[in-house]
Design a protein that fits this description.
The chain has 382 residues and is an alpha/beta fold. It has 12 helices and 13 strands. The strands form 3 sheets. Strands 1-9-8-5-4-2-3 form a 7-stranded mixed sheet, sandwiched between helices. Strands 7-6-11 form a 3-stranded antiparallel sheet, with no helix packed on it. The longest helix has 32 residues. The structure holds pyridoxal-5'-phosphate.
């Protein structure tokens, strides 16, 4: 149906073989592959003091982070106004109150220390930041702010595995880093996630929590290492399985190269789109960051009807998308009285996401840019 779709898996024989090996091994629930995936993920993040706990999805890792910090009723958690619904859902799910921090600017769509600070009250307990589209937030200022004001810091790194701020990996700045390995992510296993912390005690608690709070796993019993188990704290089943961990190991090996390819495609997009006056491109000329280009968001001028453009692109065979609709507009959050975030709300109305994936070709990018040029510069705009 599509000539260029929004996202395609970066999979080949290696992923197929990895899955077959696990199936053939006769052990598919969480086991040795998962341990290897966790260890290699910690290494990728660059530290012997980093503990990675693989879980069933990114939302589970965010939920576990809030529960691990005992955040609940009466607490406020500051989250970005421009992010995926998972961030507000987990805050609501633990009974806390979400408060929205605006984007830094029309160029940097991430939250900043200033936009977070503007929302701090005596009830604020934690801050969740998102490295939107794979561009790291200004972490030094955010870490300093959180330390000074006694706030927990959770990094939602769903868009940014492998990204760095001042040479340090995103996901290792706060109390927890929460990664998603959903199908369309830079590291993709279908459904999966990773909870990362430098605090050994939090990591031990997380390992127990993801498996009903049990002190021993099915694998331990299979290996004869345990007969029974204790449950010292309640937990849930947020386990990953060996099939997904095996996929994760292959994807992890490909990650650096795949992220680099994404960067080349973005360079091409930026060069090609500079002649279209109704399109501006965010995250330009930011310092101290090594982005990983999860998605390619553009900002349309006020005069462009976004739905019309999405439909015109569809006629050319190009899939596009929106990151993200604003929370207030979702039925579930209409009565929450969420604070306003003017820049994020304006961006949310005008943002358009164009296709991006590592196996995309330069000619795909050229085709998309030429089509946009045709539609926006040559045709009569509705
Ligand atoms: C910013 C952000 N946070 C959290 C999530 C949730 O991850 P998952 O879908 O793995 O639960 C996603 C992805 O879907 C995301 O994009």
């Amino acid at each position: 149906m599509w000539k260029v779709q929004l996202f395609k898996l970066n999979y080949d024989d290696r992923e197929s073989r990895a899955v077959k090996d696990v199936v053939d091994s006769g052990w598919i629930t969480m086991g040795e592959k998962t341990k290897e995936f966790e260890n290699n993920f910690s290494k990728m993040l660059g530290g012997s003091n980093i503990h990675s706990v693989a879980v069933s999805n990114g939302t589970a890792s965010l939920h576990m982070a809030l529960l691990g910090l005992n955040i609940g009723s009466g607490d406020e958690v500051i989250i970005p106004a421009l992010t995926f619904v998972a961030d507000i859902n987990v805050v609501k799910m633990v009974g806390a109150t979400p408060v929205l921090a605006d984007c830094s600017s029309y160029n940097n769509w991430n939250v900043s220390a200033e936009t977070i600070k503007a929302q701090i009250t005596h009830r604020t307990k934690a801050v969740i930041i998102v490295h939107y589209a794979g561009y790291p937030c200004e972490m030094n200022k955010i870490v300093t702010l959180c330390k000074r004001r006694g706030l927990y810091l959770i990094e939602d790194v769903a868009h940014a595995p492998g990204a760095k701020y001042k040479g340090k990996s995103c996901g290792t700045f706060g109390d927890y880093g929460c990664f998603s390995f959903f199908s369309n992510k830079n590291l993709s296993v279908g459904e999966g996630g990773m909870l990362v912390t430098k605090n050994k005690q939090l990591a031990i608690r997380a390992r127990e929590f993801r498996s009903h709070g049990m002190s021993a796993l099915t694998l331990d019993r299979h290996k004869g290492r345990a007969i029974s188990y204790d449950v010292s704290n309640v937990g849930l089943n947020y386990r990953i399985d060996e099939i997904r961990s095996a996929l994760g190991l292959v994807q992890l090996e490909k990650l650096r190269d795949a992220n680099r390819k994404r960067g080349y495609l973005i360079d091409r997009y930026i060069k090609n789109l500079s002649s279209i006056k109704d399109i501006s491109i965010p995250f330009q000329n930011l310092k101290n960051i090594e982005p990983v280009y999860h998605i390619f968001p553009i900002l349309l001028s006020n005069s462009i009807d976004r739905v019309w453009l999405i439909n015109r692109l569809r006629e050319y065979g190009i899939q596009s998308s929106i990151h993200y609709p604003i929370f207030k507009e979702f039925t579930a959050f209409k009565n929450l009285n969420l604070n306003s975030a003017p820049i994020a709300e304006d961006i949310a109305r005008r943002e358009l996401t164009l296709p991006l994936y590592p196996t995309m070709s330069f000619s795909d990018v050229d085709f998309i840019c030429n089509s946009l040029y045709e539609i926006l510069e040559r045709e009569e705009v509705a």
